[in-house]
Design the sequence.
């Protein structure tokens, strides 16, 4: 292993060093840091959860590359405000607002039914960690509905309309390393952090399964590191306070999303899990591997729930 890869691997193992701002800053200085993506003029990108945080920052990143960006949000006012912020940062940006609450099947259905144009990059970014167990209008536990069922629906309905080489990027979390894909997918025994991490594990597993089922499309899961966003301030306020000095900006959290959407080398592989422009293992030290049948159970649950839509 050369020195750059050794430093990169050590940062990952140290977690605190790698996931925070110093990790990205150091990796950027390594000799083999992958080049920035080329221009994306003419490409169409849709980002869920683009009204704030990492999703909004990713919208800015794609707009800077010249892509036409759809900011998909559940609240018209917040999403319009985010679009205005993108236009301010990138004068002349081609941005538009689409409304979709990715936690409810009726809203997902209306959104995918209304999508008529091309789609080159779909970013499944919207994500929540809900403090207490609650159900959506469809009767689905809200963290699972938002983080897993929403992306499942979007891929199910849009994949066949995406041209070969199109990309789907799903924003997971390093927290997924701590959870196995077990049979309590709807978190009947609810603990917010564990339920969230399990959905983030499920996103990585779905990415692997999508890559097999849709070989003409490129699927990536990624984790952004620890970024200072409304989400982390709201759901993990103590952590945000303690880790404050090393938290990444939302833009730094979005860096690998934008890179995966545009970099030529990211179009040559599918089904992997990325962080800071590199594929990463999906299990650390072989821990938290799912039991036989857990993947199929996840897929069947998603199919069953989606069939209610
Ligand atoms: N920040 C981190 O350090 C970190 C670390 C690991 C992983 N992540 C992942 O990164 C992604 C973005 O996180 P963030 O920190 O930027 O979070 P955030 O600041 O809370 O932003 C989340 C975005 O998702 C939207 N959203 C939530 N539920 C939605 C729904 N049902 N339908 C449509 N949009 C919805 C929010 O919209 P509203 O404005 O309407 O609330 C907001 O735009 C998430 O998937 C998260 O799990 C973040």
Sequence:
């Amino acid at each position: 292993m050369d020195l750059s890869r050794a430093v990169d691997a050590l940062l990952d193992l140290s977690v605190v060093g790698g996931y925070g701002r110093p990790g990205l800053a150091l990796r950027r200085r390594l000799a083999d840091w992958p080049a920035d993506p080329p221009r994306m003029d003419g490409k169409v990108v849709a980002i869920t959860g683009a009204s704030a945080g990492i999703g909004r920052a990713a919208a800015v990143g794609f707009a800077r590359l010249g892509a036409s960006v759809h900011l998909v949000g559940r609240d018209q006012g917040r999403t319009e405000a985010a679009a205005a912020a993108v236009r301010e940062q990138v004068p002349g940006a081609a941005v538009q607002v689409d409304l979709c609450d990715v936690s409810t099947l009726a809203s997902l259905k209306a959104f995918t039914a209304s999508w008529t144009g091309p789609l080159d990059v779909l970013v499944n970014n919207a994500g929540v960690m809900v403090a207490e167990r609650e159900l959506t209008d469809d009767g689905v536990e809200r963290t699972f509905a938002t983080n897993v069922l929403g992306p499942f629906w979007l891929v199910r309905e849009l994949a066949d309309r995406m041209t070969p080489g199109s990309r789907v990027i799903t924003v997971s979390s390093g927290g997924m390393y701590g959870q196995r894909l077990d049979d309590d997918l709807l978190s009947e025994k609810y603990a917010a952090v564990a339920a969230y991490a399990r959905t983030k594990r499920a996103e990585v597993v779905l990415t692997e399964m999508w890559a097999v089922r849709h070989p003409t499309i490129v699927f990536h899961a990624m984790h952004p590191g620890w970024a200072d966003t409304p989400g982390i301030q709201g759901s993990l306020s103590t952590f945000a306070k303690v880790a404050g000095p090393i938290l990444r900006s939302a833009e730094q959290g979005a860096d690998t999303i934008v890179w995966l959407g545009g970099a030529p080398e990211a179009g040559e592989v599918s089904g992997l899990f990325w962080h800071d422009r590199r594929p990463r293992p999906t299990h650390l030290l072989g821990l938290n591997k799912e039991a036989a049948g857990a993947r199929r159970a996840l897929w069947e649950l998603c199919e069953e729930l989606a069939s209610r839509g």
The chain has two domains: 1-33, 40-306. The first strand starts at residue 44 and ends at 48. The chain has a mean pLDDT of 95. Residues 40 and 162 are 16 Å apart (CA to CA).
